[in-house]
Amino acid sequence: MAGGMSTVVSRAPVGLAAPLVRVEVHLGCGLPAFALVGLPETVVRESRERVRSAILNSGYEFPSGRITVNLSPADLPKQGGRFDLPIAIGILAASSQLPARATAGCEFYGELALSGELRRTNQLLPALIAGARTEHQLIVPAANDWEASWVAGPQVKVARHLCEVCEALRGGAHLRCAGAIEHAPVRARPDISEVRGQFTAKRALEIAAAGCHAMLMIGPPGAGKTLLAQCLPGLLPPLDESELLEVASLASAAGQRPGVGVERPARARPFRSPQHTASIAAVIGGSSLRPGELSLAHHGVLFLDELPEFSRNVLEALREPLESGVVVVGRARRTCEYPAGFQLIAAMNPCPCGYAGERSGRCRCTPGDMARYRRRLSGPLIDRIDMHVELAQVPVEYLMAGSDLPGDSARVGVESSAVIAARVAAARRAQMARQGVLNSRLDPAQIGGVCRLDRESRALLAAAIDRLGLSARAYHRVLKLARTCADLAAEPQIRRSDVSEAIGLRTLDRASQGTERYFASETM
Predict the structure, then answer these.
(1) Phi first, then psi: what are they for 428, rounded to 5°?
(2) % of the chain beyond a pLDDT of 70
(3) 5-177 is a CATH 3.30.230.10 domain
C-alpha cells in the first residue's frame, strides 16, 4: 500500500465564505507515523486518532508506514471536525481500499466518532451554499439535515456512518438525498393591538417599519417600550428566499440552528435582544471570527433595552454599521466582513431611577444625575438614530380597557398588526419601485431627487434647522422620515404635515436646545 496518493475536496469555514480545501494524502515507506500539515488547529490535529479508530472499527485496514496529510492551501487556518471524513476517505482511496476515481467531483464533510458514525458539523451551511453553486456532489452527516435542507437537491447526500459513504463510493449503495425545508406562515406575536394607549409611539413604530428607520423610545418602566419593540417584526414583510438563506447562513456561521425541532419554521424576521451586559465581542463578533448580534439581526430587528447601560465601546461600535450595513470583524491575522443590515430599536429610561416627570414625585434624581445619564449616549450616535420618541405611563382608562369599563370606548380605532403591515408593505413597494432601496438607505445623491419639498415645507424645515441646530445628518434623516410619512399616505409629494411630523419625531434634538422640557409627558 506504500506509495499511494489521493486528493479529496472539502471547504473551510471563514465567515460566510467557504474556500475550497484540498485534502492531499500520501502513503510512504518508513516507520508508522501520521503527519498532518496545512495550519491545522487543535481539533483538526486530533482527527488523527478519530480517523484511525473510525477506519478500523468500520472494518477497513489502517495503512502501515508513514501517512502524510496536507490541507491545502497551506496558509489558510483549518478548524473544526469537518475534515475527519475527507481525511478518512483520502486514506482509504490512497490505500486502494476505495476506487480512486470515485471521489472525483465530491465534497466531504463530517466529524467521525471512534465507531465510524458521522456526527454533526458546525458552521456548515455557507460551505454547502458554495458547493451547491458547483457541479460537485456534497456528502454530509445525516445529523446536519437542517443545513442540508436549505440547499436540498440531488447533489446533496446525507449519511450516518463511514461505511455508508464507502459503500456508495464503491457503487454498492445509494445515499439518501436531503429533503427540502418547508416554512410556515408568519404569525404576529405579540400583536400591536395588545398595546394600550401609546398612539404616538405606535405611529412612530409604523413609520419605522415602513422605511426601516432606527428608533429610540424614552419612557418610564412599564410604559410598553419592550412590548412595542416585540411588535415590530409583525409589521414587517416576511423574508423572501434570498433573505431567508442569508439569515440562515449567518446563524450557521455563528454555530446556531434556528428552527431545529420545529416542523415548519416561519419566515419571520430575526429579533435579537442582547442584554446590556453583552461584551463588544458578543455584539460585533467573537474571537473566533464568528458573527455577533449585529449580523445575527441582519434583515431583522436589533432591540437594545436600557441603551445607556451598554458599555461605551459597544455603543460607539454601532455607529459605522448603522451607516454602512456591514461589520468587519478583525483579529491579529484575519478579518471577516459580515452583513449587518439590521433595524435598530432602542429603549431607555428618562433618568437613572426611571420616574422623571411622574406626578407622584417619586423621582429624586438631580439635574446633574439626569445630565450624566444622558451623556452616556454620544451625540454622533443619537444623530444616527432617526426617531426619538417619548412615552408616558399609560392612563388607567386605557390600561383597563376591555375589562370592566362599559362600552370599551377606549379601544375604538385600535388597529391590528395585520392592518398596519398591509400599509407598511404598500409603502415599501412604492419605495422599491421609485428608488430601488428603502428610504432609510437613501444616499445623499438620491435624497435630492426623491425628497423634494415645496415652498412651505422648505420654510418649515429651514426654521427647524435654525432653531434646533440640526446637523447635516439630522437634516437628511428628517427628509427621509418625511418621505416615509408621505409614502404611508400614498402621497407622491412630501407635504408640510409630513415634514412637521418628522421634526416632531426627533425629541432629543428639541430637548438639546431647551425648546421643550427634556422628558415631558406626551398626550396619550
Answers:
(1) -65, -40
(2) 90
(3) yes
